[in-house]
Amino acid sequence: MQLAAFNNNNFTLGHASMTINEGLPMYMVARIEREHDIANMTVGILGMAFKAESDDTRSSLSYKLKRLLRFRAARVLTTDPYVSSDDELWPLDDVLAESDLLVIATPHEAYASLDLDIPIIDIWNLLGNGERV
């Protein structure tokens, strides 16, 4: 955005990358809905911070993902081991126990050893399974 402003808003590559980045949550929800009936599922979002091992939620797309899923999923639960400024966060164990589907939205190391029998959407490939969404 700063590069675009500096160049009289003639920075189409920058605008395109911003559009792609901001559209990622919508793309994820659409792809998840192709594979799962989330209207009848509890979806757990793991990680609400902007980046791994951080408590900074500014510009975090996890919150946009949460808003979109709230319109489509039966229930949405969120957790983050670093964020303390969000009163709606659940303890990790509770999110894992109550969710039918998980989305690793922020690749915190705390999620790297998850071994569960429910689907996990891992866009960061934190678990090393190479699954694409």
Structure characterization notes:
Helix 2 (about 10-35) packs parallel to helix 3. With about 130 residues, the protein is α/β, with parallel strands linked by helices. The mean pLDDT is about 90. It is globular, with a radius of gyration of 16 Å. Strands 2-1-3-4 form a 4-stranded parallel β-sheet, sandwiched between helices. It has helices at about 1-5, 10-35, 60-70, 90-100, and strands at about 40-45, 75-80, 100-105, 120. It contains 4 helices and 4 strands. It has one domain (about 1-120): NAD(P)-binding Rossmann-like Domain (Rossmann fold, 3-Layer(aba) Sandwich), CATH 3.40.50.720.
Task: Briefly say what this structure is.
The chain is of the alpha/beta class and 133 residues long.
Q: How many separate structural domains? A: 1
Low-confidence stretches: none
Shape by Cα distribution:
globular
Strand content: 5-15%
In which range does the helix fraction lie?
A: 25-40%
CATH class: Alpha Beta
For the largest beta-sheet, the strand count, sense and barrel status come to: 4 strands, parallel
Q: What structural category arises from helix and sheet content?
A: alpha/beta
The oligomerization state is single chain
The string of secondary-structure elements, in order, is HHEHEHEE
- What would CATH call the architecture? 3-Layer(aba) Sandwich
CATH topology title: Rossmann fold
Widest sheet, order of strands? 2-1-3-4
Mean pLDDT: 89
Please count the beta strands (DSSP E, at least 2 residues each): 4
Continuous helix count: 4
- Determine the CATH superfamily: NAD(P)-binding Rossmann-like Domain
Report the end-to-end length measured between terminal Cα atoms. Answer: 27 Å
Rg: 16 Å
